Each structure stands twice: as C-alpha cells, then as structure tokens.
C-alpha cells in the first residue's frame, strides 16, 4: 500500500457518545465466514485503505506499531498458493504421498476469497514493552480488520495453520526474521452466512473479584 492511498482523517467523535444500536447489533452478531464462501466483490482499493486505517486503530502499548500488512489479491493468490503447495511437498518428504498431495492441494487453494490480509507481528525487542503485549496488539489488529470489514459490508475469517507457522511458508508469505504471522484474514462478500456457533456462557466465565482466602 502506498501512502497516497491513505483515507481522509475521520471526524472527531462528539464529546458525548450515545448507544448505537447498529453498532451493537454488528458486535453481537459477528461471525466468521469460511474463506471458500467469500466471493466477489472484495474491498476496492479505497475500501482497503480505509479498512487498514481502521485495523491499526487498536490499543498499542507505547505506540510501537508492532505489526504490518501484506495484501494478497488478484493473480498473487494463485501464484502464492502454488509456491506454498511446492513448499508443503518439500517440507514433508516422509509423509504418505496421498496425504501430502491432499494438503498440498489445500495450500494451492488457500486464497479463494477476493482478498487476504496477512497481519505480520513485528515486536520491537529493544523496548521494555513485553513481546506478548505487542503480539496481543497484533491480534487486536486482526479482529479490527474483521469488524471494519463487517462495517463496510464484507465478511471474513481469521486463520493461521501450516502456512502461517512453517518457517519456509512464512518466508514465502513475506515475513522476515523476528516476525511472525498473527493471522491471515480472508475478506470478501459472503455467498452464504453460516449459522452461528454456540457462544460461551458468560456466567461461567465472569466473576466479581473477592479477596483471596
Ligand atoms: C489466532 C487464530 C487462528 C485461527 N486459525 C484458524 C484456522 O487456521 N482455521 C480455522 O478454521 N479457524 C481458525 N481460527 C478460528 C476462526 O477465526 C473463527 O474464530 C472460527 O471459525 C469461529 O468463528 P467465529 O469467528 O464466528 O466465532 C483461528 C482463530 C484465531 C484467533
């Protein structure tokens, strides 16, 4: 992304925020859509720029910007998929051939959606800010991408898997030394909204603090 594609600065919020039913409904219904069910259209260049500006509006201890993006769209999807499939075969020489081909095939088709954003975590190890906090901020970027996409009318899913963890695959994705893949966020227009999955029981997760015994 070049700097000239930065969207205009958003307006300042009014001093008094009021409940926003539309926003609440979006937050209360967000769900992932599998990449195979994400079709055209994907975000336009302007929408992508806006989306990335939303994505980086995350809590970031000491304002380190410990993340960056690699956008995969158009012909790059198949080109990268082919390279990942080749790497999968090379990296798994002892795997049963039919199993290896099955997963290599999955790698070759890893980018079915119109667009994917790779969120790269690049913690600054020269600061006092713990790496885990910087990686948490990268996770927040991934979620903000999903929320921003939803606000623009798109759907998406945050995945990782072999392509995001194998060192050669990570290199092919474009990450460098000291960097990790926080997520591959596939984005597009849902061809079908899947049924919701069961959500955690908040009553079983949240307690009010009491003094330890
Ligand atoms: C760091 C991270 C990595 C994930 N990797 C995968 C993955 O590789 N494949 C997958 O199917 N889901 C993966 N998920 C789960 C999906 O993003 C998603 O949460 C899940 O499909 C449930 O859908 P929901 O977002 O509607 O709750 C991952 C989630 C996180 C937070």
Automatic annotation (TrEMBL):
The keyword Oxidoreductase applies. Binds 1 FMN per subunit. One of its GO terms (molecular function) is oxidoreductase activity. It holds the Pfam family Nitroreductase. Its cofactor is FMN. Residues 40-188 form the Nitroreductase domain. FMN binds at residues 30-32, 57, 61, 158-160. Residues 1-21 are annotated as: Disordered. Keywords: Flavoprotein, FMN, NAD, NADP, Oxidoreductase. Its EC number is 1.-.-.-. Belongs to the nitroreductase family. This is Putative NAD(P)H nitroreductase. It comes from Ancylobacter tetraedralis.
